[in-house]
Every structure is written in C-alpha cells, then in structure tokens.
Amino acid sequence: MFYVSVFFQYMAQYMKTKLQYRTDLLIEWLSDLMAQAVNLVFLLVVFGHTTLLHGWSRDEILFIYGFFLVPYAVFGAFFNLWDFNERYIVQGEMDRVLTRPLNSLFQIVLERMELESLLGAVPGLIIMLYAGSRLSLSFHWYDVFVFILFVIGGALIYAGIFISLATISFFADARTSIMPMMYNISSYGRYPIDIYHRVIRYILTWVLPFAFVGVYPAAYFLDKKEWYSYAFFTPVVGMVCFTVSVMLWNAGVRRYRGTGS
Amino acid sequence: MNAIEVEHLRKEFKVHKSRSGLVGAFRDLWTRRYTLVRAVDDISFAVKQGEIVGYIGENGAGKSTTIKMLTGILTPTSGRVVVNGMNPHKEREKFVRTIGVVFGQRSQLWWDIAVQESFRLLKKVYCVSDEQYRRHMAEVIDMLEIGPLLDKPVRKLSLGQRMRCELAAALIHNPPLLFLDEPTIGLDVLVKLNIRQFLKQLNERYGTTILLTTHDMSDIEALCERVIMLDEGKIIYDGSLERLKERWGQGKRIAFTFAEAVTAAFLQQLTEGLEVVWKKGEQPNVWVSHVPSGGVPEVVSRVAARCALQDIRIHEVPTEEIIRNIYEEGAVHG
Questions:
Q1: In the prediction, which pLDDT does B99 show?
Q2: What is the DSSP string of B274-330?
Q3: Residue B180, SS3?
Q4: Which residues contact B168 (CB under 8 A, 6 or more apart)?
Q5: Kind of pairing, strands A56-57 and A52-53?
Q6: What is the pLDDT of residue B194?
Q7: A179/A232 Cα distance (integer angstroms)
Q8: pTM to 2 decimal places
Q9: pLDDT at residue number A261
Q10: Are B185 and B105 in contact, with CB atoms under 8 Å apart?
C-alpha cells in the first residue's frame, strides 16, 4: 500500500516536471505521434507485400505485431534500464538510491519512468483493431481481462530480461554491449514463431522467452488452438522471469562496490 | 548508548591491474591480474550519542569507504558494524530511516523541480506526518535561511544555496545520526559559517550525532571535539583535537619584520640556548622563528633589544600544518 502511494506521488511529480516545460512537452508529443504514424505506415507497406507466411496470413502477422507493441510500450514506460550502468554505477547515483528507505529497484523504476512511452500502445491497438476486423475475430467480454493479463505478463518478461542484464553492471566493471544486442533479439518475438529454425524457436521460448511477448499470447486472440497452452503460460513465464531477475538484482546490490571516493 | 560501534572493520577491493600498451591490453583479455587493495584495514571505534566527530585523512585514506559501510551502501569484507543498534547492510530499508546522509559532491534533490517539491517527495518516502514535518522543518528552514529558495527549481540555485537545501533534505525525518561527506566543499566563507552554526545548533537542540569528513580543518576546529584520523585504511589517531594540538603543535611561531636586513647566523646567535628555529619569511626582512612554548617573552625581548623592528606577530601552529606533519610521518607515536 505504501509503495502504491509513493508510486502515485512520484507520478504526480513527474507530470509536474513535464508540465513545467510546456513547449518541450508539446514538441515531444508531436514528434512521438509522428514517429508512431511513420511506424504504422511503414508496417502497412512492408506487410503489404507478404500475403502468406508459413500458414500465417498478412493480417494475422499484423495482429501479432500490433499486440507486441502494447506490452513493449508498458515496458518502455517503466523500465528504462538501458543506461543503468552509466547513470547509476559510473556516476555513483546508486549510492544515493541505497540511502533511501525504499527497495532500490523500485526507486530506479520510479526515477526513470517515462509515461509518454505509453503512447506507443496506441498504434498497437489501432493495428489490432484493423487486422482484427479484417479477420472478423470473435471477442468475448472476458477477453479484455485476458488481454490485460497477457500484456502484464509480456511486460514482465521484458522487464525481467533487461533487469537481469542491468545486474551485470554490479559484477563487472566494464560496460557491456549486450543491451543493444538484446533489443535486436527481442524483435524476433514479433513474428510467427514457426517460421524459425527449431533451435531459435527453443531459445525464444525457454531461454529468452520473447515469443511470449508477441506471438504466443496473440495466437490466443487469433483462435489458433494449437498455441493455447503456450498462450496461457504467458503470465507464468512473466512472473518467473521477473522473480528471477529481482533475485539476481538483490544479489548484485550486495556485491555493489560503489565508485571512487 | 553508542550511536556507532565498529570492530575490526575491513574492506578489501579487488583491483584489476592493466598492463601497458596494446600488447598488454591483449594479454589482459586472457589473463587478468588482480591486486587486493585494503581500503579500510581493521579499524575499531565507537561514537557516543550526541557527539560530533571529525573523520579526517588524505584522499584515498578510506574515509568514504568507511562512511559507505556505516550507511549500508557497501558490505564490509569482515568485521562488525552496529549503527543505531542495527546492522546497516542487513536491515537496510529500516536502518536508513534512522540516519541522514549528505554527500557534498552528489545531489539528493531532484534537479528539475522546486526544492519544496523535493522535500514533499522525501517526506512521503520517509513517512513523515504533516504535523511532524511542519514543526521540525519550519525550524530547519529558518535556521538555514532557505525560506526564499523553496519555490525555485534546484538547477537555478547556487552551490551554497543548494548545499543548504541538501542539508535540510537530509533532515526531513529528523534522524538522530547524520553523516556528512565533505559538506563544505567548494563553499564560500559565509555559507560555511552558516552551515557550521546550523550543525552546532542541531547538535545542541536535538542531540543529533554527527560524523563528518572534511579537508577543511577550520570545519573540524569549529565543530568537533573529537577527531579520528585515518591513513592508508588504518586509524592513526583517535581523540580530542586539543590533545592532538598539544602533542604536535607545541610552541608558537613569531614573525618579525625588521627595519633592515639581517642574516640567519646573526639571529641564530641572538637566541643561542633557546631551541629556536629561524626561517626566512616570504616578504623582505621578515623572519619567522619557531619557539617552544614558554619561550616567547625571552625571544621577543632579546630580539627587540638588539634590532629595530617594524612589526611582531605571534601565531599558534595552524592545525593544517599539524595534520600535514602527521601525514608525512605516517603515524602518531605514543
């Protein structure tokens, strides 16, 4: 309960900061929207040329992509860990974090939140609606809750993997270039999993479970019965991923050595 | 009850030794050589509640490392640390509610928002009630004279203004123990005085225990009855500042400004049998004599009897110099 109220306090503060720079905010929104629109057009053009891919139709592939954008936006809004090493370890901000009576990971999530990233979910929803209507998918009232559950699960998978990567900074001094590489790998989860080789499929399911962010949960809404068991596994995988990463994080904090004087 | 208890505390860092040159860099890829550095080497001390203790030492002597272990940021390699009756690292979140920390070179405040907004966030984080906040912070804000700064964003404050706000921010939850790591670094004299006065008042009124590191000896002289001196990770002195001065800064220093040129040999001859050391001053015709305590009247009368003088100044040996002497010798004997 305490954490929830702290969360909202930080969020209010975040909005106040953003509102302080009015023009800046306006420009940011405009450019964000424009970027998303370009993304959208780009996608439609690219997928316009494919009709059938390994048994998946163009609209199904679009739907998967659209679904993927939603958990990805949630992840982007709350887990900006890509410069964790630089900011918190090299510049020593971690010291300050550790002198405050809140969980250190939670504090970093609060400090680095970027709510405008949530806007990225909008094109995702539009794509899903567009593709969904062309596929004339059937929707039930409980699908809304299933959707939310899957989105949370997907965001937790992303968060778990990137938290684990950030944790490396506690153990190794040098900066690692794993982060950008992982962003690349993560994009494989946006496409139908059975177009890949067996090994890659296995990796995307059990080692770096990015398939659970895009194709598996989306398959549920596409009524692909053969993937249902995987789809419903999404929240579980999310929880496991996240829990493991938090445990790694805590081990990392114990190892933390701080910088210089 | 002791606010801080430290026994046989030790912190070792493994430092990667890199070889020189490109070939060396390649070899480093395969085999790494590490050296073990003891940043803090088997120190023990205790600080009573309500004390103000100065923690001093050269750069790299282990001061910050000690403070980081005492505040729960770093885990000790070995030894026992009990602060406010808790193990800082084991119960970090509960523990940090009972301490305040100011790092002189690092900001606690949010850069973009007004100072009072930062305070509000911290108030929430530390679960301080409105009533408690009003009563306590009104006083702190008043003493630090930061009332007019509260609605300005931190990025618009000068260093001195920011530092005073940092201090206030560290005191929002009225902690019984305050750690200050170089709180006056880079500040002008007026701000320094204001901060010192504030810390004194805080200590008197709330009985706040304060541990501070600084390179500014005037901070120590103004605030601390007790100093702990560190060198290469070991405590080389722990006791009152007075005692340190007595033992090391015995004697006075007299600067004579002569009306005409004199020679060292002449002066040496004048004060024969008095254990006086003469040194040439920086200005022309100025000579400084280092005189053992009690010898001042004799030296002055002998010199004044034989030479025409323009000025005489008598100084105590400054603390900075005492400290420097101790660093140079490495340890305090006896």
A1: 94
A2: S--EEEE-SSTTEEEEEE-TT-HHHHHHHHHHHS-EEEEEEEEPPHHHHHHHHHHH-
A3: strand
A4: B119, B137, B140, B141, B144, B146
A5: antiparallel
A6: 92
A7: 28
A8: 0.82
A9: 39
A10: yes
Beta bridge partners of B209: B177
pLDDT tens-digit map of A30-64: 888 888 788 778 877 877 776 677 778 888 888 99
**Spatial distance between the Cα atoms of B179 and B110, rounded to a whole number of angstroms:** 20
Burial state string for A114-145 with b = 16 or more CB within 10 A and e = fewer than 16: eeebebbbbbbeebbebbbeebebeeeeeeee
What residues of chain A lie within 8 A of the CB of B103, using their CB?
Answer: 95-96
By C-alpha distance, the chain B residue nearest A9 is: B121
CATH code of the domain occupying B2-246: 3.40.50.300
Q: Report which of B265, B293, B296, B295 is spatially closest to residue B278, judged by C-alpha positions.
A: B265
With CB atoms and an 8 Å threshold, state whether B16 touches A173.
yes
Of the candidates A17, A95, A261, the beta carbon closest to that of B73 is on A95
Measured distance CA(A132)–CA(B167) in Å, rounded: 58
Query: pLDDT digits over B141-195, tens only?
Result: 999 999 999 999 998 999 999 999 999 999 999 999 999 998 888 889 999 999 9
The domains of chain B are located at 2-246, 251-316
Strand order in the sheet with B2-17: B33-48, B2-17, B78-83
The tokens for B92 are 């970090």
CB contact (8 A) between residue A9 and residue B124: yes
CATH architecture observed for domain B251-316: 2-Layer Sandwich (3.30)
Contact, A172 vs A89, CB < 8 A?
no
Q: Are strands B252-258 and B286-291 parallel, antiparallel or unpaired?
A: antiparallel
Q: Find chain B residues with C-beta within 8 A of A258's C-beta.
A: 68, 73-74
**Which of B146, B174, B181 has the alpha carbon at shortest distance from B162?**
B146
pLDDT interval class at A103 (50, 70, 90):
very high
Contacts of A10 in chain B (CB under 8 A): 121
Q: Which residues share a beta bridge with B18?
A: none
